[in-house]
Design a protein that fits this description.
This protein has 156 residues and is mainly alpha-helical. The protein has ten helices and two strands, in the order αααααβαααααβ.
């Protein structure tokens, strides 16, 4: 049952990502190169229930010139002129950890607010585990931070 709810919450995210991929001004091969994935992977994002890892998601947002917050929540568009500051899973982990730490929210409270266990919050902080895109959207709302800032997308 919980899995169905998770899939349901991912559907709008996947739909917005597909819409932006289809509207992209780049050929799939160029987009794949920019995101550091294969053309086959781009096709999987379009035609299968496959979503990118967070670092690839950030690269796709830059290439598509769209805000991560728009893809995750349907809110806002991409700021004019944006860049990636060495996007990597390590950078994302550091940004996410900092957002959690500076929120001042107890981990148990944060976990309850976004519908995960306290152990999951700990795994995000200490075990190199990353949230799914729908959970990232909930985390960003709960922490009152933009997904762009967590992913390392910044205005120039």
């Amino acid at each position: 049952m919980k899995r169905d709810n998770s899939r349901q919450s991912l559907q709008p995210i996947q739909q917005r990502l597909r819409q932006e991929l289809l509207a992209c001004k780049y050929e799939r091969s160029e987009l794949a190169r920019m995101a550091g994935v294969s053309v086959k992977t781009i096709s999987a994002y379009l035609h299968k229930n496959v979503l990118p890892a967070l670092d690839t998601f950030a690269k796709l947002c830059i290439a598509l010139e769209i805000s991560a917050d728009f893809i995750l929540n349907g809110e806002g568009k991409f700021p004019d002129g944006a860049e990636l500051s060495a996007v990597s899973m390590q950078t994302i982990h550091e940004n996410l950890s900092e957002a959690i730490a500076t929120s001042g929210k107890p981990h148990k409270e944060l976990a309850e607010e976004i519908g995960v266990s306290n152990r999951t919050i700990s795994a995000y902080l200490h075990n190199g585990i990353f949230p799914a895109l729908d959970t990232l959207a909930k985390l960003c709302r709960a922490l009152d931070v933009s997904a762009d800032s967590v992913l390392g997308i910044s205005r120039i």
